[in-house]
Structure formats: structure tokens, C-alpha cells
Amino acid sequence: MTDEQLILTANTERADDFYADLLAAHEGLSKIESDALNARLVLILANHIGKRSVLKQALAAAARNPREDSA
Questions:
Q1: Which of 10, 45, 57, 71 has the greatest count of CB atoms below 10 A from its CB?
Q2: H helices then E strands: how many in the chain?
């Protein structure tokens, strides 16, 4: 795998802890505030990734219907 290829297999260090942190960050926020936090997080992580080809792969993967992948 190259740095131009999106990783779709489990790759997050301490994924359960990150998920708990993510939920905690949303705690007490309104729907609008939560959506804004998610948007900022996406842009921050996109900036970290940096490579447009990888970001395009991520957009395509996120746009796919998960039900279609399991059919």
C-alpha cells in the first residue's frame, strides 16, 4: 500500500478510546453544534492527510451505501 491509497481496514490506535473521546467531545452539544464540530474535525483531518487523491477516495468510500457493499 502506498501513501496515495486510502486505508479502509482497522488502523486506529486504541480505537475504543478514540470513540469514547469522540462521544465525550459531543456531550452536551446541540445538533447544530455537534454538526459544526464534525465539520471542523473533517477539515482538520483532511488537512492532516493532505493528499487530494486520498481525500477523493475517502469521499467516495463515505458516499457508498454500506448496504450495497454487503449485498
A1: 57
A2: 4, 0
